[in-house]
Predict the structure.
Amino acid sequence: MTRPLIHIFGGTSDARQICAMMDIAGIDYGLSVATPTGAQQAIGVRGEIVTGRMEAEEMAEYLQKRGAKMVIDASHPYAERLSQNIVSACQKSGIPLICYIRPSDIDAVEHPLIHKVATIKQACEIAANLASRILLTTGSKQLADYMAHLKGKTVLARVLPTAEVLAMCESCGLSVDQIFALKGPFSADFNRAFYQFCQAEVVITKESGEQGGFREKVAPCLSLGLPCIVLCRPKQQFAGKGITWVNGLEEMTRLLANFCM
């Protein structure tokens, strides 16, 4: 008997771990990633890898065509539009949706040097008032927004080492002295040495959780006396028929165990 097909959206390490759970359980699945870099990172998973961004209508058509019986949204915590498209596609298609939540460490971290904000604009306003040399560890997707709010400041960006991302950095006006193309995860010791090497005066990061090395980014700031501005996750809690929220990989493991029974 063929197992029901599950389709997973997400190029995160969490998504890849969920794929590994599927492989162990012998569950048939597919994985959607946005970019060739995401596909490269997913090499080794047994499910079919689908590369490319899809809008809600395209998702719904694809899921119906493939006969998907369940969808798991394991996308990045800040990928709001993607998550909204997934919800719309599943509701249109009548497919049950599992929304995976990456556990957060934000409430466990309190210090006068840590500034928690809700928007990029707020992060940049605080950073601009604190220092002139600002390090971004927030990725490249919204780099242009940061640059627009940090005019007159020296912006340093730690980004993935791909041609597409480097071209984006250059298009935003960053010079070779401002671009640090590296792939994580990074240890706290590495981050401490890196902050010192690039002479950062303030660090802007995201509430990326354990999988994103959040504490490893924050702890060196505190030890070096650097202000750390944290862009908190968007408050998105989709509700509706057929939507189930799963908090962390342990809870996902239990859900999949029940699915296989």
Summary: The radius of gyration is 19 Å. The chain has two domains: 6-103+235-258, 106-231. The chain has a mean pLDDT of 90.
